[in-house]
C-alpha cells in the first residue's frame, strides 16, 4: 500500500501561494546578510535566507533575490559580494537588514574587506564571492557565486529561521551530548 501527501487526510489538496509559503516555512534555514557596493562605492546589504552550497570544486554557493527588490540592479551588476552567515545573537541585525527605508549600516560594526566589500563583524561565517552567474526563475533571480575567500568563527551557533520565526535557542532546552556533537566525530 502506498500513500502520497496529496491523499493523506491531514494535508490540504488546495494549492495556493499561501499554502506554498506555509509548506516552505517548514524547512528551517540559516539566515544571511548579503553585502556589496553600489557603483558609487556605497555599501548596501540585505537579509536573505535562500543560501546554499553548490559545489566544492569549483567552490560555488547560491542565493536568490526577488526581482522586485530595489537593490536587484546593484547586485546584478556587482562583480563581487559577501555572504554573511549570522550567529544566533545577531537576530536584531537580521531584522535591521530586512527593514526598508533605513541606513542599514548605521550602528553596524563592519570593515572594508577584499574588493572593498563591506564585511560585517562577528558573523558565524563570511564568503567573499565573484558574481559568477545569474538565473532568472519565476519572480526571483538565483545568484551563483564563486567563493574566493571564506572564514568562520569557531563555536558560533547559527541563527535559524523556521515557520516565519527566528530560533535563537532550542525550544526543548539543551541538546543531549550525543546530539550536540558533530556528525563526523
From TrEMBL:
Gene3D superfamilies assigned to the protein according to its UniProt record, in alphabetical order: Electron Transport, Fmn-binding Protein, Chain A (2.30.110.10)
Keywords linked to the UniProt accession: Oxidoreductase
Keyword Hydrolase: no
Record Pfam families: Flavin_Reduct
Domain annotation Flavin reductase like: ranges: 24-168
SMART domains, alphabetized: Flavin_Reduct
Transmembrane helix as UniProt keyword: no
Family: Belongs to the non-flavoprotein flavin reductase family.
Protein known as: Flavin reductase family protein
Amino acid at each position: 500500500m502506498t500513500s502520497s501527501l496529496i491523499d493523506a487526510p491531514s494535508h490540504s489538496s488546495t494549492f495556493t501561494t499561501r499554502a506554498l509559503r506555509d509548506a516552505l516555512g517548514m524547512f528551517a534555514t540559516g539566515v544571511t546578510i548579503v553585502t556589496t557596493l553600489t557603483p558609487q562605492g556605497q555599501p548596501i546589504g540585505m537579509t536573505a535566507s535562500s543560501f546554499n552550497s553548490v559545489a566544492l570544486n569549483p567552490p560555488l554557493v547560491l542565493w536568490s533575490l526577488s526581482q522586485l527588490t530595489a537593490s536587484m540592479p546593484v547586485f546584478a551588476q556587482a562583480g563581487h559580494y559577501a555572504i554573511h552567515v549570522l550567529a544566533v545573537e545577531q537576530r536584531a541585525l537580521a531584522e535591521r537588514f530586512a527593514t526598508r527605508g533605513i541606513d542599514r549600516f548605521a550602528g553596524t560594526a563592519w570593515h572594508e574587506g577584499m574588493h572593498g566589500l563591506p564585511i560585517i563583524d562577528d558573523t558565524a561565517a563570511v564568503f567573499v564571492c565573484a558574481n559568477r552567474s545569474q538565473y532568472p526563475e519565476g519572480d526571483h533571480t538565483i545568484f551563483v557565486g564563486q567563493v574566493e575567500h571564506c572564514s568562520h568563527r569557531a563555536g558560533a551557533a547559527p541563527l535559524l529561521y523556521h515557520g516565519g520565526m527566528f530560533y535563537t535557542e532550542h525550544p526543548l532546552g539543551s541538546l543531549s551530548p550525543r546530539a550536540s556533537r558533530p556528525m563526523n566525530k
